[in-house]
Design the sequence.
């Protein structure tokens, strides 16, 4: 299964970059190469429900030991047609 990984910042800055991965293991390896990350399932608050159908991971990146920036990761199936 091919997936497109798209990163968005939490300040509405739009897409940061995208990467194509063949499976979840490849995705996790890619993320580990680029950052020290903690992965957790997204919160189920009313703000996010229904807004992003393909948002499945929430990544917290510790910056300079002082603050945490949250990135949403979107996995989209890539059609081979």
Sequence:
């Amino acid at each position: 299964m091919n997936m497109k990984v798209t990163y968005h910042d939490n300040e509405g800055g739009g897409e940061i970059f995208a990467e194509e991965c063949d499976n979840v293991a490849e995705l996790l390896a890619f993320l580990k190469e680029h950052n020290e990350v903690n992965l957790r399932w997204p919160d189920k608050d009313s703000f996010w429900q229904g807004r992003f159908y393909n948002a499945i991971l929430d990544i917290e990146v510790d910056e300079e030991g002082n603050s945490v920036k949250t990135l949403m990761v979107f996995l989209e199936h890539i059609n081979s047609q």
About this structure: Residues 24-34 form the longest helix (11 residues). Confidence is low (pLDDT under 50) at residues 36-42, 48-57, 76-81. Residues 3-77 form one domain.
